[in-house]
Design a protein that fits this description.
By secondary structure, the chain is α+β, with helices and mostly antiparallel strands. It contains ten helices and twelve strands. The protein has helices at 70-78, 100-115, 122-132, 136-141, 176-185, 196-203, 208-211, 220-226, 230-239, 261-274; strands at residues 4-22, 28-47, 52-57, 84-90, 144-148, 153-156, 163-168, 216-217, 244-247, 254-258, 280-285, 291-292. The strands form two sheets. Strands 1, 2, 3, 4, 5, 6, 8 and 12 form an eight-stranded mixed beta sheet that branches. It has a four-stranded antiparallel beta sheet with strand order 9-10-7-11. Helix 1 (70-78) packs parallel to helix 2 and helix 9 (230-239) packs across helix 10. The longest helix has 16 residues, at 100-115. The structure holds cytidine-5'-monophosphate. Residues 27-28, 30, 133-135, 150-151, 176-177, 180 line the site of cytidine-5'-monophosphate. Catalyzes the phosphorylation of the position 2 hydroxy group of 4-diphosphocytidyl-2C-methyl-D-erythritol.
Length: 304
Amino acid sequence: MLETATATAPGKVNLFLETAAPRPDGYHELTTVFQATALQESVTVTRAEEMRITVSGLDADCVPTDSSNLVWKVAENVLPSTPVHLHIVKAIPTAGGMAGGSADAAAALVACNALREHPLGIDELDTIAARLGSDINFVLHGGTALGSGRGEILTPVPFTGILWWVFATQGQGLSTPAVFTEHDRAGAWGHPHSVQPLVHALKAGASASDLAPLLFNRLQDAALSLRPELARTLFAGEDAGALRGIVSGSGPTCAFLCADEQQASAVARALETSGTCRHTVTTTTTAPGAVDKLQTSYRKDNRG
Ligand code: C5P
């Protein structure tokens, strides 16, 4: 019987996010393109006397350590009646639109399954992931994918390039439901943008500068309406040379696509001194999905 298991899972950036009117269950039908970041979370699960969560790394003191944390719910689903200690090592900024909490959940799913020596296949892990949140399925699989439904229905998009990103974080988070509510208040789902030009460009292996004009986030206006100061952040990053700046998911983190590592360093330096963000994180896409320490990959045919 295994005593402990560790797994990692990436964060995400939405290159494209279009919404439809809310469904009867309150969720919004999405058309989105996800990419997984090289920045990843790590979760170690160890058999214990009682359930416990500890957290280290970036923004560790902002992370709940009680049963409200998704990793607790994951353990209850995968290891019923088995108390465990879950230790999360954070590298992804919290409450920011980069799916840090979803990455913790995906890593916990894979680690808990590894602790039981893999009784669950990918379809069962996907079912649990979809029940617990909208972004967990993607970070389980990684790579690049077109997402529909709540974001949990995924079609891999073959893309073999490497893109450089700078993420500018804010001191205060932005609630995802609040951003969707603001978006609905503004009635912003009128004329849908097509995702096809971006998908074709990705499949054709387009460069960062070709992809930049195709980035789109329907939630950006709502995030800016709730946090007008983010406009200054977006301006500061683009002024420093980024190819394009967009709000990441529901924000408030802003994502800046850069031509290469050198440009990303310059953009990060400029943002750090601009006074328009808390700090910056530089990373690349795309990366693999959740992987346990024994290197069992849970990706289907996505490419990292
Ligand atoms: O599924 P998840 O817990 O990540 O979603 C958080 C909240 O974001 C939901 O409660 C809902 O208010 C909003 N949401 C939505 N439509 C989606 C995804 C999330 O309205 N497709």
